């Protein structure tokens, strides 16, 4: 019985992730090796729940393999390693394309208020109460180069965390240890500063795409927390400290 067949619901519940499967996942990326033993054990338990609760499907001719599903599950569970599996509630499906995919969408420029329609080539997308959509080519690159500042799965899970309390506004559901006002007073000035720097053509440690909106800022700095924490700390130390409280300390220093 393959993992993909089990995830499609054609067989009885699958047993837990085997040691061989888990070791193969850990061996795919230095991102997982950087975790301590306790964190890896928690991640494995979260992955088992993820695979039991979520469904995977392939698009545009992509062929999903067992190791791809496990790797995506491991990346998706990293942001909730210290928050808990319930923070992944409210959605069920992961759709995987072989590479970039094209979508029709509206763009709203929050600075000018202008709305335009067009096509976008994306590597990831998260729908409110809908699926997470991913480009496998980009997931594979993130696994191979985990500390380059990018992680499409983390980015889309950050959007899901943002949507968990309703509006996608860059303010996710927060643990009791972080007040909403504190979050906004930390994140908003950093976002505004980045937007100004991007408008003026300045080079930034944070991807300029983060200046698109507050929710994209949160998703991009979440990527940096896990994949280039030193750059995030250099660019926005208060944001880096806040995300360490939200997600837990980064293993990438």
In brief:
The chain has 253 residues and is an alpha/beta fold. The protein is built from 11 helices and 6 strands. Helix 2 packs across helix 5 and helix 9 packs across helix 10.
Can you walk through the features of this model?
The protein has a single domain (3-247), classed as Orthogonal Bundle (Cyclin A, domain 1), CATH 1.10.472.150. Helix 2 (19-28) packs across helix 5 (66-77). The protein has helices spanning 3-7, 19-28, 30-33, 37-53, 66-77, 136-144, 152-163, 180-199, 214-227, 229-235, 237-247, and strands at residues 55-58, 93-97, 101-108, 115-122, 124-126, 132-135. The protein has a four-stranded mixed beta sheet. Strands 3-4 form a two-stranded antiparallel ribbon. The chain starts with a helix and ends in a 6-residue tail after the last helix. The mean pLDDT is 92. A hairpin with a 6-residue loop joins strand 3 and strand 4. The protein is of the alpha/beta class.
Q: Tell me the name of the CATH class.
A: Mainly Alpha
CATH architecture: Orthogonal Bundle
Give the strand order, joined by hyphens, for the main sheet.
1-2-6-5
CATH 4th-level superfamily: Glucose-regulated metallo-peptidase M90, N-terminal domain
| Sheet with most strands | 4 strands, mixed
Q: Counting H and I runs of at least 4 residues, what is the number of helices?
A: 11
Average pLDDT number: 92
Radius of gyration: 18 Å
- Structural class given helices, strands, pairing? alpha/beta
Features:
single chain; 253 residues; alpha/beta; Cyclin A, domain 1; four-stranded mixed beta sheet; two-stranded antiparallel sheet; 11 helices; globular
